[in-house]
Amino acid sequence: PYTTLFRSSKEIAQIVGVDGAGNPEIGRLRQAVAAGDGQACADLGDAYNRGLGVALDREKAVSFYQLGVARTNADAMVGLADAYQRGDVIEHNEDEAMKLYRRAARMGNRVAIIMVGGTGEESCDTRGTQSSSVSNNVSTKVSSRNKLSVGHNLE
Predict the structure, then answer these.
(1) What is the pLDDT at residue 118?
(2) Which of 123, 142, 147 is nearest to 134 (CA)?
(3) For position 22, what pLDDT does the model report?
(4) What separation in angstroms does the CA of 18 have from each of 2, 6, 12, 38, 80?
(5) Distance from first CA to last CA of the chain, Å, rounded?
(6) Cα dist. 3→7, 89, 145, 149 in Å?
(7) DSSP 8-state class, residue 97
(8) Cα separation of 145 and 46, whole Å?
(9) Quick check: helix, strand or coil at residue 78?
(10) What pLDDT does 23 receive?
């Protein structure tokens, strides 16, 4: 049920609501996390990271992103990579961030492809349909020494 590559703040607000405690969508996300859904981990991490439907809590966000990464979810990889780049909850680590971005890019995540130097236009969503839209929400920058071109080795 949670298969979108990445969601806008408005989409996440619609999923998790904005009323906080007792929100049934937060409960459904937590159930999905408990059932092993990696995308739900990323979505709940995004909710905590942005304070959408829950109190802003970046430590919880990182915990959910880490769980999503363990479940091989590309969106969670991007969330955790962003946390490594920010360095506000976990220690700043550009190398670890780039490893996560490259891993997510190999899985077709458009934000990750952009972060490693691609355009995002070459990716497909999880349903295999070609997508030419690019996220306007990329808020971090990659140093030029770490940029890779799509089509080159992303390992």
Answers:
(1) 74
(2) 123
(3) 65
(4) 19, 19, 10, 22, 23
(5) 30
(6) 10, 27, 32, 26
(7) H
(8) 28
(9) helix
(10) 78
